[in-house]
Design brief:
heterodimer, A: 335 residues, mainly alpha, MetI-like fold, 11 helices, 0% strand, globular, B: 333 residues, eight-stranded mixed beta sheet, four-stranded antiparallel beta sheet, 12 helices, 14 strands, 23% strand, binds adenosine-5'-triphosphate, binds magnesium ion
């Protein structure tokens, strides 16, 4: 297993490199210029100098290699230094946002906690809701619980989050006034009251994401349970005289979790990208929000970096999903 | 064979109906049989004749709905299995009655070790702790002829061959020293040499442990080799029943006779074609008011369409048949 994981990690490196090259080149070729949004009165030669100052004078491959070096060496070392105070001693220019002129890495580090809290909790609650619903729906197939669960998950799955988000704001902020409609990132949790405020302001975006994730995962859970409930080994377990609870929650659930856990793992990075919209609606200034703003103003270094991070996450979680599969299913041999 | 002693299992007039949207399916109709201590009862009959449903009805293994075990009694040690609550029946399953199923490849849970799966009934029914259950599980694996049992307890089912898995299934079924072992076509999915090994194993275990066995099979050769008595089922009913040598020597039901003729004989000149029983198995939709076999029966006459024959004794003691036609005289009985 360890061998397999290491081998897969080694293969992931060229994959990520190719992705980084594609991301870099595509954005480089995209129309839009960092100086395009500046006033038209700026003379062309000044404009050109600004472009040179942004490092746009070099050939594209040179710029790619420089960017890659900053991306995988300089920025991580800064991150480590900031987090642990331990200086590796890698110096050099950092990736600068064209828009704010501050290092992209610092912006991402600032934005990360909001995204992780909102998206992470949304995913976590989604799983916690989805698993029991899927299990009960499958066990009581066609019962009213199953019918209701299937209907709600179909709605939750087919209605986009920007719609549920707006509906939630309308109902719970505008009409009922229970929750604030905007997320205040500057809010600090210091005591009980500020904690309660934090819970209230995070509740709606988390609920919107949790609903969406839960409807997806519960469908998987239900289908997987149904597959397994009809298996011969379930009859064997019953013939042994085991309690129904043991049969379902030990024998069937353990088997049903295998594909579901994989789906959950693969879904984690897509949740980041999916949260872009939710962040916009609730004004959470997280990573998704940063990405959207950077795209608006053609801030390519920012876009490249965030896209690249998403790509790494996708490759990484695919790998994690495969490894989990091997851990959960003893029939899988990876040698 | 053990005769005269009180039966361990006594089933009377068992009736199971599947209530489906397309209508009722009368899968088991008034089936009666008994099983004496240490005896091996063979059950034969073509696919769909209700062999499995009969046995699963006894211990509540059928999904309800659609299954409805609506009539009959099944006495095990003075208790009626069909009147027990689900909790009491759960205590009987795996403790008093062990079950071995047809397909060993799918009957074990792929994600748990074989040891865990053998230990489960021991811990559930015998109140053993982990260490005791593990010791007993290793004994059981040794009993069913799996070498190096201590180590194999930690293996998963996919690390065993089909025959080995069926041995594990037998070990699970025997874990709590059941009075009755029900084996539902336990060798059908295995190749011939492995079949023979499993048969030998069961014969030996029966001699050693003395439990009564119900052995469901399509293979008359197996019945001839190991059973004391045989019960022939057709269309959800028992059509003939008796000691193996009586039934094989003097089959009384046209279906049994046809069944015995379909077995290719090695010692006689080869026939041009394999013998088959012409026609289709009956549809079990209607309540059986007529003989289920009449459409395929060469001897059928008008009474067969009017009246479902009851079992009546023939020839040797304990031999009975459900047929209006008398095979001796060749005339209506
Ligand atoms: N869940 C079910 N719903 C409806 N009908 C069923 C169900 N299970 C079994 N039956 C019906 O009950 C009848 C008897 O089936 P059973 O499985 O007992 O046959 P069998 O004699 O064991 O055959 P085989 O030799 O193929 O195992 C069949 O006609 C089948 O259609
Ligand atoms: Mg069967």
């Amino acid at each position: 297993m360890l061998n397999y994981t290491l081998r897969r990690l080694a293969f992931a490196v060229p994959t990520v490199l190719v992705i980084s090259l594609i991301v870099f080149l595509m954005l480089d070729m995209a129309p839009g210029d960092p100086t395009a949004s500046l006033p038209l009165t700026i003379p062309p030669e000044v404009r050109e100098q600004m472009r040179l100052a942004l490092g746009l004078g070099d050939p594209v491959l040179v710029r790619y290699v420089k960017w890659l070096h900053m991306m995988v060496v300089v920025e991580p070392s800064h991150m480590i230094a900031n987090a642990t105070g331990w200086n590796i001693g890698v110096e050099g220019p950092r990736i600068l946002s064209w828009q704010t002129r501050s290092p992209v890495g610092d912006i991402i580090v600032q934005r990360m906690p909001q995204t992780l809290w909102v998206v992470g909790l949304g995913y976590l609650f989604g799983i916690l809701i989805a698993v029991p619903i899927g299990v009960i729906s499958a066990y009581r197939q066609y019962s009213w619980f199953d019918q209701a669960g299937t209907f709600v998950s179909m709605v939750g799955f087919s209605v986009p989050t920007f719609f549920t988000g707006v509906v939630f704001i309308l109902i719970f902020s505008v009409w009922l006034g229970w929750f604030p409609s905007m997320y205040d990132t500057t809010h600090q949790v210091r005591d009980w009251d500020s904690f309660v405020f934090q819970v209230r302001q995070i509740a709606m975006p988390v609920a919107v994401l949790a609903l969406f994730n839960a409807s997806q995962i519960s469908r998987f859970m239900r289908a997987s349970m149904l597959d397994n409930l009809n298996q011969d080994y379930v009859r064997t377990a019953r013939a042994k005289g085991l309690r129904e609870k043991t049969v379902v929650l030990v024998h069937v659930l353990r088997n049903s979790m295998i594909p579901v856990v994989t789906v959950i793992a693969i879904g984690i990075p897509t949740v980041f990208t999916g949260a872009i919209i939710t962040e916009q609606i609730f004004r959470v200034n997280g990573l998704g929000d940063a990405l959207i703003r950077a795209i608006y103003v053609s801030d390519w270094p920012m876009v490249q970096t965030i896209t690249f991070i998403f790509a790494i996450l996708i490759v990484l979680f695919n790998l994690i999903a495969d490894v989990l599969y091997g851990i959960l299913d003893p029939r899988i041999r990876y040698d | 064979m053990p005769d005269g002693s009180a039966p361990v299992l006594d089933v009377r007039d068992l009736k199971t109906v599947f209530r489906t949207r397309a209508g009722d399916i009368h899968a088991v109709n008034a089936v009666s049989f008994d099983l004496r201590p240490g005896e091996l009862l063979g059950v034969v009959g073509e696919s769909g004749s209700g062999k499995s449903v009969t046995m699963m009805s006894l211990i509540g293994l059928l999904p309800t709905p659609p299954a409805d075990v609506c009539d009959g009694t099944a006495m095990l040690a003075g208790q009626d299995l069909l009147r027990m609550g689900p909790e009491a029946l759960r205590a009987v399953r795996g403790r008093d009655i062990g079950f071995v199923f047809q397909d060993p490849m799918t009957s074990l849970n792929p994600v748990f070790t074989v040891g865990f799966q053998i230990m489960e009934p021991l811990r559930r029914h015998m109140g053993m702790d982990k260490a005791q259950a593990r010791r007993r599980a290793a004994e059981l694996l040794a009993l069913v002829g799996i070498p190096d049992p201590e180590r194999r307890l930690k293996d998963f089912p996919h690390q065993f061959s089909g025959g080995m898995r069926q041995r594990v299934m037998i070990a699970i079924a025997l874990a709590c020293d059941p009075k009755v072992l029900i084996a539902d076509e336990p060798t059908t999915a295995l190749d011939v040499t492995i079949q023979a090994q499993i048969l030998e194993l069961v014969k030996e275990l029966r001699a050693r442990l003395g439990m009564a066995i119900i052995w469901i099979t399509h293979d008359l050769g197996v019945i001839a080799g190991i059973a004391d008595r045989v019960m022939v089922m057709y269309g959800g009913q028992v059509v003939e029943h008796g000691r193996v040598r009586d039934v094989f020597a003097d089959p009384a039901h046209p279906y049994t006779r046809a069944l015995l003729q379909t077995v290719p004989k090695l010692r006689e000149p080869r026939e041009a074609q394999l013998r088959v029983i012409e026609g289709q198995p009956p549809l079990l939709g209607a309540h059986p008011a007529a003989c289920p076999f009449r459409a395929r029966c060469g001897q059928a006459f008008d009474r067969c369409a009017r009246e479902n024959p009851a079992r009546r004794p023939v020839g040797a003691q304990g031999h009975d048949v459900a047929c209006h036609w008398d095979h001796r005289s060749g005339a209506p009985a």
